[in-house]
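Z., the sequence and structure:
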Amino acid sequence: MKLLPLQDKKLVTLALNVPGPVAAARLAKLGANVTKVEPPSGDALKMAARPWYDSLTEGQTVIRLDLKSQEGSAQLGKLLEEADLLLTSFRPSALHRLRLDWESLHSHYPRLCVVNIIGYPSPQEEIPGHDLTYQAKLGLLRPPQMPITLHADMAGAERSVSAALALLLNFARTGKAECAYVSLYEAMHDFAGPLAAGLTLPNGHLGGGFPFYSMYETSDGWIAVGALEPTFVKRLVTELGLISVFGEKDARVELQKIFRTRSAAEWEQWAREHDLMIVSVVS
């Protein structure tokens, strides 16, 4: 039986690009009835990545409104009268101009909970930013290589879902609607915790410093080895026929020699047979 805890909840989302649509899609999977309101020009994500956009809006009602017009504002108002939750991704000044700031919304729709996705936290919420710039500020980039995924956006999306669930739960308990602000920079700051702690630095325990949690070349590609706990280290050493756990440098040299003798796929199959964590690196 599929759990749909939000099946009686109505969500209106004005959030575009990545964090908002990802969060709305997650809430829809939890049962929420989602209406996505886009500007007349549509969502840029649709033009940049149509298949993903289609996946994220599946099962949702998508409409286009000019919120700067009286007619568009009125149509949005009708939607908000029946909604339980509003999701936005505008800067506070833009929300104020559209009369979608918390004070205005709460006075007209006292039962409406609101999640506002912003870039930087207060008092810097008006400073513009994007996933790339948040990662740059947090030391998560290795120029000139671009990020391989949108870490801040995806982290912010998950945090927005948590905020939405918390608001709806609080409303169910107290009957009081409230507003939450989700900062993408703050979400990424927390997700960068392992780096700040030194764990994922180049020589950190989880950044390549520990030879049994690292990547190695094979005869035709690369594998990722995740023997982190002592039990798995011991099993890996035993199954590979190594006499003992060497010093870190020696262990890495010996492991590299062995892993070059087979293909990545062969090592992945071997690991499954021996209950170990080794997978091919998909490039």
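The radius of gyration is 24 Å. Residues 71 and 149 are 38 Å apart (CA to CA).

Let me know what you think.
H.
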